[in-house]
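N-acetyltransferase domain-containing protein structure dump, as promised
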Amino acid sequence: MNQHKMIITQYNPKYAEQTVAMWRDSKEQAIGQKEIHSFENHVYFLNHVLSEQFQIDLALMDEKVVGVIAYNEREISQLYIHVDYQGMGIGPTLLDRVKAQSSGRLRLYTFEVNENAQRFYEKHGFEIIGRGHENEENLADIQYEWISK
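structure tokens r here:
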């Protein structure tokens, strides 16, 4: 993974702006539509809503946020990788850590338009268990589940 060492660390609000900028870029590229919430609201959501409901880990390279995952022992709420750092193993590294501390099964939703995410999750042992979840983006969703073998 080039010469730079990746560090995984617990989320710290000092990384809020970087995390949100990366998240918005990555999501926009994945689903082809602009984020509906303002940058400020997104930062507030990260710091005061998501972080109270889920454990959040960041992947850092040279103090730069290159990945984020929000999870608990049963579900993954968010997983985004910086658009310039995809395909380097950051996603699988974050996912493996979450699997290791999970209850033995994890569920998540991904957008039907996001075929890269579907390939990624299927490659890492997730199977489709449902379709058509309501979300703010009004996009069709797929629900996935991973069960520890």
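The chain has four helices and seven strands.
lmk if u need the other ones
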